[in-house]
Amino acid sequence: MSEPRNEHRSGGPVFNGPSSNNQIAWNNETVTQNQQNNGTGTGAAPGFEALAERVAELLRQLPQAGLPDENREDAEVAAGEVLATIAGPEQPEAGRLRRALTMLRGALDPVATGIAAGATLGAQEWAVTAIEGLVA
Q1: CA-to-CA distance for 78 and 102, rounded, in angstroms?
Q2: ∠ CA 91-97-98, rounded to 5°
Q3: pLDDT digit string, tens, across residues 112-133
Q4: Bridge partners, residue 44, by sequence
Q5: How many CB atoms lie within 10 A of CB 131?
Q6: Which secondary structure element, helix H or strand E, spans residue 124, and what is its range?
Q7: Is the Cβ–Cβ distance between 111 and 123 less than 8 Å?
């Protein structure tokens, strides 16, 4: 079997992996490019955009929330499951979403109630607020 040759071309950009949503103009005197994005940017099923934004914000705040490592990791996995469940153009399966949200609330509950070792008062307050915002 012959192995594919690496060809080097100097005439344009080379993409060595996935590439999407790009606009490229190469060797043009004048160019006009337009791009229209009518989506919310969340990638969530219609009607679940707000939940996706809340979960994404929760994920952004997790590193600064002061959660013990084990609880933070559990919350990250559970939040990822919620986002995966509501991703796409189709309505998510209700039971799967309910279970994913229950997992996420369950990951945050020990922190919110003060049971988690090493949870600070700020982390407790943050977890309570996060849990209250997790409604489908």
Answers
A1: 9
A2: 135
A3: 777 665 666 677 787 888 888 8
A4: 87
A5: 19
A6: helix 121-132
A7: yes
* Three-state SS at 130: helix
| Residue 103 CB-density burial (10 A; 0-12 exposed, 13-18 middle, 19+ buried) | middle
User: Mean of the pLDDT values across residues 38-59?
Assistant: 79
| Placement of tokens 């939940």 in the chain | 51
Lookup: tokens for 40: 């919310």
Asked whether 102 and 75 are in contact (CB, 8 A), the reply is no
Contact between 82 and 48 (Cβ < 8 Å): no
- Cβ distance 68 to 117 under 8 Å? yes
Q: Are 42 and 51 in contact (CB under 8 A)?
A: no
Global confidence as pTM: 0.61
133 HSE (CA, 13 A, CB side): 17
